[in-house]
Model the fold of this input.
Amino acid sequence: MGAAGNGPSPRGGENTTALLVLEDGRIFRGEAYGATGATFGEAVFTTGMTGYQETLTDPSYHRQIVLQTAPQIGNTGWNTEDDESSSIQVAGYVVRDPARRPSNWRSTGSLEDALRGQRVVGVAGIDTRAAVRHLRERGAMRAGIFSGDALAPDDELVEQVRRSPQMEGADLYGAVTTGESYVVPAAGERRFVVAALDVGIKFNTPRMMAARGIEVHVLPASSTIETIESLRPDGFFLANGPGDPATADGPVALTRQVLERRIPLFGICFGNQLLGRALGRSTYKLRYGHRGINIPVVEHATGRVAITSQNHGFAVAGEAGEEFDTPYGRAQITHTCPNDGCVEGMAGIDFPAFSVQYHPEAAAGPHDAADLFDRFVQLMTDNPVGYAGVAGQRPAGVEPAPYPDPEELPDGDPAAPSATPAAPSAAAAPSAPAAPATQAAPSAPEPDAPPATGSSATAAPAGTAPGGAPSGAASVGSASSAAAAGSAPSAAGAGSSASGAAPAMTAQPSPSAPPSATAAPSVDLYPAAPPASSGAAPIAPHSPEEPRPAGDAGAGTRPGPAAGPDAADHTTRLPVSPAAASAEPGGPAGEPETSRMPAVGRPGTPDPLTAPFSDIEDALRRESGLPGHPAAAGDPGAAADPRAHQGAADPVTGRSGPVDDRPWPPPATDPTDEQARPGQEDH
Done:
């Protein structure tokens, strides 16, 4: 399990050492990043070059120490729109080169501030390539990050890691499930109702379904089949989640009951493993898992290859295209990963269910698999068993029955839940003839129908509520619980019951609106030329910012329009701080100390748009009086004595000295290990 950090990462003259300790004795030394202290978890790596905020808040990463293979992390900072859960879920975080300053118009803070604020212990500056290769060769393993007061002799730290629990056999979905049910209303007309079992659901999943007219009831992992039947759903959804699927006996038993009632089912990631177990398949632990946003998957029926987002360390046993018998009819392995043959999807041939091992809702992309939600809609259309199916088959002119809430059922009456789905079950038998009638239902909305009680009629309250659901979700609850919580009377619903037959469902924010709905106004990429201002900072002659005549493209600059008193300057410029007055009369304009960009008009300064990174880094170091790279040793702007600046922070990396990435203790050479290279360091 992960231990909370003791405080913010130290800076200045304090000790900034942090260690990543693996259970096999390998130790990587770096600097503290985020909070300081000790944390434990399974060390895994993810290959995504973007979407680190979605990764950190993904509940599937619960109790894992995540290592980013991309070298630069944190460039876009942290915002309030991209979270996939109510908090950061990882046990620890490992990066190579964290950004010192975020740069993005949506950013509300830095990544390190977010880690520090949520007491997530991290380490930066280690050789992540060596660490990833070590995990690939030896598999994901237990690990710990230690910094600050948690530092101790190496052998003691290794022993602490070995005493931490393993991921195999870990029962973790209960730690990330919602404590109370909540509802994400459909965007527009409600076409279907889906019961989603939260074993680690991400915010974007109900958002994707809501965009397709699905009202999503997100239920705790401990929900019963009676609760699901009382909702009279058109479909059942199994979410992603953390831990070993072999320990999830409760959700597996519930999945079997759903399959017995032939309720259309869709599962992703952990849900694919739950469906596999419900169908009689076994699961196993992968060596180092699939984690990233560029993993290919082959759909065998069509030969189509989708690039997918994945995050799983367990898989379902099976072979590509394999058909097998289940208690509910024939089923088939439909998708596999061409990299290693891992099962990536399955579907029922004789019953309405399918699942995939990857993430079609991936908020950071890719979106190749987003059409799976449309397939789920089609599956519910072809197999009408819920409220939408009954409404589509009722005689013309007959109003549908009010949509029930769990609280409307008589307290202690076991027959009431089973009586509710009786009509849908009867209607589900002739599924093929009923499909056209159900398909026509969405095209004939009923604006005059009485409003549904409870969840479907509840207004979307503002704010964030327990359970961490996203902003805007409707709530379901009894009148007494609504009054106790100080809710508006309208939130209770006309059909609410004070008997307390089911737990009260408190107000939760909803993810029905996509992040772009709350984004700031877009930026015009081709604005009109601004009017001339007498207070503008002067542009130094022959600088990269000076407009040049047509056809005169100086070195390091791009050609601009013809210069003249009436010529409009449309030169694309970086957002550089206004130049301050020069200290020397007639000299070039200086730049404020707060800017990292070299002074634009200074002679010999490389153009930040076209110059190599090494030249820009050397310019930054020269401004701080530090030497550049070895090739610039003869540069007159370099410091005469490099030893005079050993305590100063490098303006490019932000570090005050080299980071020790040497392996310690040295890994023992295994003569049976074909990949071991005696006499060579793992760098």
The first strand starts at residue 5 and ends at 8. Residues 458 and 490 are 7 Å apart (CA to CA).
